[in-house]
Amino acid sequence: MIIAERKPIKRILQMIEPFERIAVIGCRGCVAICSAGGDREVEILAAALRLARKRQGRPLKTVEDTFVRQCDPEYLTPLGELKEKVEAVVSLACGVGVNLAADLFPDLKIYPGVDTSFYGANPALGEWEEKCRGCGDCIIDFTGGLCPIARCAKNLLNGPCGGSQNGKCEIRPEVPCVWHQIYERLKARGELEKLSQIFPAKNWIPAGHGGPRERKRPDLQMNSQK
Amino acid sequence: MSQLKLAILCCHYTNEATAQDVADIPAEVVIKRFPCSGRIEVVDILRALEEDAGAVLVAGCEKGSCHNNTGSLRAEKRVEAARKILEEIGLSPERVQMAFVPRLDTGALVEAAKRTFETLLEISAKGETSS
Questions:
Q1: Residue B67 CB burial class (10 angstroms; 0-12, 13-18, ≥19)
Q2: Which helix (H) or strand (E) segment is A116 a member of?
Q3: Integer Cα distance of A162 and A160 in angstroms
Q4: A44 vs B88: CB contact, 8 Å cut-off?
Q5: Where are the domains of chain B?
Q6: Is omega for the bond preceding A160 within 30 degrees of 0, making it cis?
């Protein structure tokens, strides 16, 4: 899922400084699952903003809602009515949601309430770990299902580097060296021959270095606006 | 100076305190009970402050005695989270206090409330206002 984290409240207060009536809108997708932008976080942020503004002597009125998703136009339609009732919207969706809302409602003052961080897994309550970089050219069939792009600090395709010590990465002693893990995993599977090839320099265009990425499925497209 | 207000958010099973029990505290004391302190959310604490409480006491069962096992431990985590938010918006985190009290011991809860009120007095003496 997409992992996000609430921005510092002072930063959000700066964004909404001119306004007296705002909406705080969450998303029940990834950011709800990673406890950054679901119903609970919406009500906490709204209460914190109201409390801060009350203390400043400039009371803030808030409308709170959480949409099913903010990355699909159909779920953003309530913003059309909402923008008539509030001066600005703080969205707790990931950057995708804020961007789509800004695309669809150009006159809506919408601000991000979270920093969108990475694609991660939730190995334990309250913990999220990056597992994928979304590079668009997946090679983990060669690496035992472990991604060296996302999980190696140097994004090495032919690791480990000289900084790998006793199975740990040189960046922090608690971080496992993913290339050490890849070796051990493939050895246990009897697939070490997969490491005999040298990966060539990676083509980063599918990773987004060729501009914003798109995916189209003509068999699903019915009413494309493009 | 208007009267200080203290909010107590507590588990049903920790006490049977009434307004009379906290009458010695020279503040408006509001007691809000929950089925378990683990049900007390960060937003409940913030809303109590929004509703003019200068300080909030969250009270749950002593560690190991919550009949939902981890209710008061969860409440403690929520108190920590609320305190961090207060720090972010420039309020003393000490405005939110956690107390682990013996089950059905009203006396222990009242003592914790008095300590919270004293903390509130200290914060107020520094000139910090919550609203």
A1: exposed
A2: strand A114-124
A3: 7
A4: no
A5: 5-125
A6: yes
Q: Which fold has domain B5-125?
A: Rossmann fold (3.40.50)
What is the rounded CA–CA span in Å between residue A147 and residue A129?
A: 12
Counting one residue from chain A and one from chain B, the pairs whose CB atoms sit within 8 A come to 41
Domain membership of residue A35 as a residue range: 2-118
Split into its structural domains, chain A has a count of: 2
Contact flag A43-B43 (C-beta cutoff 8 Å): yes
**pTM score, two decimals?**
0.94
> What's the gap between Cα A119 and its chain centre?
6
Q: Are residues A41 and A94 in the same domain?
A: yes
CB contact under 8 A, B43 and A52: no
> What distance in Å separates residue A58's CA from the closest CA in chain B?
10
Contacts of B130 in chain A (CB under 8 A): 51, 55
Neighboring chain B residues of A43 at a CB cutoff of 8 Å: 43
Average pLDDT over residues A94-103: 98
Digit-coded pLDDT (tens) for A181-207: 999 999 999 999 999 999 999 999 999
To the nearest whole Å, the CA of B104 is away from the closest chain A CA by: 30
Residues A102 and A139 in one domain: no
Beta bridge partner(s), residue A120:
A130
Q: Does the CA dihedral B79-B81-B82-B83 come out positive or negative?
A: positive
